Each structure stands twice: as structure tokens, then as C-alpha cells.
Amino acid sequence: MMKELLVYKCEVCGYILEVIDLGKKKLIENGNSFSRTITVADAKLICCGKPMTLLQANSVDASNEKHVPVISFNGDTVTVKVGSVNHPMTPEHLIKWIAVLYGDRIQRVELEAGDSPEASFHIGSERNVKAYAYCNLHGLWMSQANK
Ligand SMILES: [Fe+2]
């Protein structure tokens, strides 16, 4: 089970890929200035002629907390709202999806303009949840909560 969501984005066209299995990591030489341990496949992810970017999930929002997912538990359901102040949901600026990781599982809800920036997930007896939200303009956001 992946302990975190690993998503790559093409900064040109917005294409997004999710890593499901890392396979074997290897030390990748990248010129002689630095090297890092990633998969061979990740080192070769190209879209629109450019290397795809591994998105780093932000957890602190300096601009009035519109992006950090707010997690609340209700019985065997978890609700994720983005954020403590509702994020815009216009065609130009919106939360495109919300995902939760828990135990050995992942769930994702895709959102559209006009939807509320929130989603609910049935998680059974799981007590530890990581929530991710993706804004088309401001990238990936994450928070974590225990029941
Ligand atoms: Fe945003």
C-alpha cells in the first residue's frame, strides 16, 4: 500500500498520472550535480516534451485556508471539505478531485464546477485518514486526521 499519494503532472497540458506501485527504486544519475533514488520509470516520465513534475502536497495555506482539507468523522463515514473557507468551484478555478487514503485503500471523488468542494467516503472502522485535494491552479493539498 502506498503511504502517500504520488501524482505526476504535466505543467503544459495538465495531464496527471498516479503511481500505484513503485517497483524497485534505483539511484538515478542526473548530470553530475545531483542524483536521487527514484524509479527508472519516474525518471523518464515525459509529457509535451518536458519531464513531468512530482506534485508535493502542501499542508499550510498562507492565503486564508481555502485549500487545506478539513476532515470530519461521522460513524463509518469521513467527510472532507476544502477548506475551512469554501474553495471556489468555477470552471476557471476549482477543486478537481478529493481523495482519501486509509488502511490498504484509496478512494477518489471527481468534482465539477458548481459542485460543493467536499466529498464523503465510507471508510468502515478505519481510524486514520489522509485526505488530498487537488486545485487546478494551486496544486495538491493534504491533511491527516485520527478518529
Ligand atoms: Fe485554488
Judged by helices, strands and strand pairing, the structural class is mainly beta
Number of strands: 14
Count of the separate structural domains: 2
- CATH architecture tag of the largest domain: Sandwich
Question: What fraction of residues sit in β-strands?
Answer: over 45%
Nearest-integer average pLDDT: 87
The ordered string of helix (H) and strand (E) elements is: EEEEHEEEEEEEEEE
- Physical arrangement of strands within the biggest beta sheet: 11-10-13-14
The level 1 CATH classification of the largest domain is Mainly Beta
Function: Catalyzes the one-electron reduction of superoxide anion radical to hydrogen peroxide at a nonheme ferrous iron center. Plays a fundamental role in case of oxidative stress via its superoxide detoxification activity.
Protein name: Desulfoferrodoxin
Domain Desulfoferrodoxin N-terminal: 5-27
Enzyme class: oxidoreductase
Can you lay out the helices and strands and say which pair or pack?
Elements lengths: L6 E3 L6 E3 L7 E5 L3 E5 L1 H4 L2 E2 L2 E2 L1 E2 L14 E6 L2 E6 L12 E8 L2 E6 L7 E5 L5 E8 L3 E8 L1
Antiparallel strand pairs: 1-2, 1-7, 3-4, 5-6, 8-9, 9-12, 10-11, 10-13, 13-14
The protein binds fe (ii) ion.
Q: What would your notes on this structure say?
A:
- With 147 residues, the chain is mainly β.
- The chain is globular and about 45 Å long.
- It has one helix at 40-43; strands at 7-9, 16-18, 26-30, 34-38, 46-47, 50-51, 53-54, 69-74, 77-82, 95-102, 105-110, 118-122, 128-135, 139-146.
- Strands 11-10-13-14 form a 4-stranded antiparallel beta sheet, with no helix packed on it. A 3-stranded antiparallel beta sheet has the order 2-1-7, with no helix packed on it. A 3-stranded antiparallel beta sheet has the order 8-9-12, with no helix packed on it.
- It is built from 1 helix and 14 strands.
- β10 (95-102) and β11 form a beta hairpin.
- The chain has 2 domains: 7-54, no CATH class; 69-146, SOR catalytic domain (Immunoglobulin-like, Sandwich), CATH 2.60.40.
- The structure holds fe (ii) ion.
- Fe (ii) ion (FE2) binds at residues 67, 87, 93, 135, 137-138.
- Residues 67, 87, 93, 135, 137-138 line the site of fe (ii) ion.
